[in-house]
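Intended use. Records such as the Peptide-N4-(N-acetyl-beta-glucosaminyl)asparagine amidase A entry shown here are meant for training and evaluating sequence-to-structure methods. They are not intended to support clinical decisions.
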Amino acid sequence: MASTLYSLLFLLSTLTLLHQPPLSAANLHSTAALFRSQPFSEPTSLPTADIPPTTFFEVTKPIPLPKTKPCSYLVLEHDFAYTYGKSPVLADYKPPTDCPSQNFARIVLEWTAACKGRQFDRIFGVWLGGVEILRSCTAEPRATGIVWTVKKDITRYYSLLMSNQTLAVYLGNLVDSTYTGVYHVNVSIHFYPADRSYGHSAVEYGELDNGYGFGSVADLILPISRTLPLNDGLWFEIENSTDVESKEFLIPQNVYRAVLEVYVSFHENDEFWFGNYPNEYISANNLTGVPGNGPFREVVVSLDGLVVGAVWPFTVIYTGGVNPLLWRPITAIGSFDLPSYDIEITPLLSKILDGKSHKLAFSVTNALNVWYIDANLHLWLDKGSDRTQGNLLEYSDSPLSLSLLSNFTGLDGLFITNILNQVIHFNGTVDAKTPSSSILSTNSLKKFTLDFYSDSIDKGNGTYDSVANVTLGIDATRQKTSKFGTSTSRLKNLQNGQGNMLVKGNLVVSGLGSTQQEYHYISDKSCYFRNICFLLTKLKTCDFLDALKIFD
Ligand SMILES: *[C@@H]1O[C@H](CO)[C@@H](O)[C@H](O)[C@H]1NC(C)=O
Ligand SMILES: *[C@@H]1O[C@H](CO)[C@@H](O)[C@H](O)[C@H]1NC(C)=O
Ligand SMILES: *[C@@H]1O[C@H](CO)[C@@H](O)[C@H](O)[C@H]1NC(C)=O
Ligand SMILES: *[C@@H]1O[C@H](CO)[C@@H](O)[C@H](O)[C@H]1NC(C)=O
Ligand SMILES: *[C@@H]1O[C@H](CO)[C@@H](O)[C@H](O)[C@H]1NC(C)=O
Ligand SMILES: *[C@@H]1O[C@H](CO)[C@@H](O)[C@H](O)[C@H]1NC(C)=O
Ligand SMILES: *[C@@H]1O[C@H](CO)[C@@H](O)[C@H](O)[C@H]1NC(C)=O
Ligand SMILES: *[C@@H]1O[C@H](CO)[C@@H](O)[C@H](O)[C@H]1NC(C)=O
């Protein structure tokens, strides 16, 4: 099958940084700590027995399901105590061969966890046969206990799920007398057989996001991750701006489409890369221990040395970030199910269909320690032939042109004020056509916004008081035209949080947080709307509106 593909990517990032930080080294330490994830410390003397655990959740639309009874099973049950630097926890995965139907419309991964005590937010990954299927962040526990559930539609990994695999979970947790939280985790998979009310299988009907129509999920998925055994996650770790991590792979010779799905998360000095100071500012003020390299990052993916795509990641704030009270119980957008990013690499197939091994590599512009990155190569195979052929018609890659305008005055005063506005816009287009007709055309417009305001005051002895207001938003429109017609969807998801807190050392000792979120999703098939608020101390919701409608 011949395909011609043009892709267009555009990035615009505007950013304003205003700093009036203070004089002493102690204060500067707080500046760095201000953004960092930190756990909330509650008195452990409280009578906790009759207080029910708090349920945390991320606002998102429900997964559309057929009305069939799922075949479900618990793949893994594990208590993550001192797991940092240890090998991932492994379990045998087998497809549900005893399920009466073997034609599934949806397959859903369910992560349920409970924790009690005090603990940092921990990043974790779930891999099946080395293919990452979930990147997520734990919720921070309370003395009275917490529970949360993440449900993810994993139907796009259908082909992988139909054979025996090893499931691996890495969640690097540390437990000591201060950080006492042990994460108790269950991982289950639900297989929903196709039925008439829902139509037939999502796979046959091309209802999934990726699809050329015939066989809308990949026939084969190759892991572009580190191989077991290891004492860490299967992700690659990118430590600086020159670090390149890569993996060799070999594909069958009858591939007609290839999409690389990239998973990304950022940590330590780059956990708040979008708020990192320009290096000139750091040196002008003799700051130490403050992460720099400015507020722009771009994940670059290359194939045999040729750039095939870039990712401008959404500014996910983990559950302990800025002020943990902002994300309790409504967690920040993307924190429980970090987005993955698809790069269409079909135009370059002709370079890798030679039966030889090739190399995919990842790097991050301006990176500081550390980024966790890996990818899945989704491949569609031509069942009617042993070999497909192709040609790259045109390739162009313009180098990154980045401009950073910094305007700051020297350090003064006792207050630390941070104001940050970041907008990432990007539009992506994929067109696949034969000489006579169009096969697939997708158009995606995305806008990520982050507004951040904080004030903090040093109280001496490693103690500080801070107030912070945060606005996080996604506005994404997607249009797809295939032989099934045209479908359009739009997601507008906006979150506002206001909080204050008193921090001693690494621990938040008191404070309050409020969160408001408006989630609007509309497509040709369904719409979902939710407007939810969490106000101050009470675990209650206000102005609650929750509606799902499936159009007939
Ligand atoms: C995990 O599953 C077991 C067995 O069904 C159950 O007893 C336990 O409470 C579950 N744990 C969580 C965190 O849901
Ligand atoms: C998959 O695993 C099951 C149970 O462990 C085993 O009975 C079966 O033979 C395996 N299937 C294949 C194809 O290896
Ligand atoms: C960047 O990280 C790589 C991998 O750890 C290391 O080998 C290299 O020396 C680092 N480069 C700089 C400039 O620090
Ligand atoms: C930074 O250090 C240099 C050399 O020690 C000194 O001359 C300068 O005044 C310092 N700047 C600030 C803002 O403290
Ligand atoms: C820098 O900011 C100050 C105060 O906001 C303003 O007066 C000045 O014009 C700005 N300078 C530049 C070069 O933008
Ligand atoms: C993306 O497309 C929309 C609609 O066509 C347009 O308004 C916007 O300016 C584009 N943005 C970029 C960054 O190209
Ligand atoms: C800081 O701690 C020391 C020793 O614990 C104590 O003597 C001092 O009063 C404290 N200062 C403040 C401002 O709390
Ligand atoms: C922060 O939020 C509070 C509460 O909504 C509001 O009163 C305050 O004006 C906000 N501050 C800034 C700088 O946006």
